[in-house]
Amino acid sequence: MNELLTIVQDVVNQLKSIGPEVLTVLSVIGVGYVIRSLPFIDNRFIPTICILFGPVAHILIGDPGSTSFKSRNPEVVLGMFGLLYGVIGWVMHHHVLWHVERWIGEKRSRKVEDKPEKTEDIASL
What we know:
The protein is mainly alpha-helical.
């Protein structure tokens, strides 16, 4: 049990070390993939949902102390940066990860084509 807690604590520390900005972008990309797997949400709404999720995520995981002490509402500043990170996450998915997904899909389809088909019937066994 102690080993499991140590592993969880190490993972949490590693996530904290990458910073809230990168964590926000990664969470936007992750939410996009989760939403895409839901059949009742149309794919055309995914960019909007992801971009609007960015501010929410960054307000929750961002550090209000990182904003200027002169700002009255640090949550608004975090939300604006979160909106920017939401756009960055969607653009990264659209221009980078989409090509990687397509390349992986082509590799998988080649493997399926390379497999020989079985011509035996179950009745002949």
